[in-house]
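TASK: fixed-backbone design
INPUT:
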């Protein structure tokens, strides 16, 4: 089984849905997500099969809606960087933006998301850093592009 380094991964934000031009968000330290988790609904009935010890009934469930998670990224913040300014502007937008996470392996996850927040840390003994939070909406598109 192959193993891949995370170094070189990118978070990109598109400028539109139609023929988007993507800009790589600068100076990222970590990228987490996107995650997904299914909701389940209990469908256990009085005549559900009992397969447990001592004839104890076990619950039966079905998957319903797939819940999209959040994408978060830690960043060394630059208030003069165009991509950092665009993230802050997108917080005020009502609609989602198109994003991509591109891994060094060539795997890409493309998804729509709302920019939910940009927080900052100003530690006296540290760099100006921050965190970006995105909330995915809809299903992602996954594809591979061979690495150069």
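OUTPUT:
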């Amino acid at each position: 089984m192959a193993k891949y380094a995370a170094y070189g991964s990118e978070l990109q934000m598109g400028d539109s849905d139609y023929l988007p031009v993507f800009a790589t968000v600068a100076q990222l330290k970590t990228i987490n997500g996107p995650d997904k988790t299914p909701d389940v609904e209990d469908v256990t009935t009085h005549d559900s099969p009992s397969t447990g010890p001592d004839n104890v009934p076990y619950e039966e469930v079905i998957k319903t809606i797939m819940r999209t998670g959040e994408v978060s990224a830690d960043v060394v913040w630059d208030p003069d960087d165009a991509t950092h300014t665009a993230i802050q502007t997108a917080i005020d937008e009502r609609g989602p933006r198109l994003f991509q996470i591109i891994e060094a392996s060539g795997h890409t996850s493309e998804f729509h998301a709302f920019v939910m927040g940009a927080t900052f840390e100003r530690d006296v003994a540290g760099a100006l850093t921050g965190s970006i939070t995105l909330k995915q909406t809809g299903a992602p598109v996954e594809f591979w592009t061979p690495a150069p």
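COMMENT: Helices lie at 82-91.
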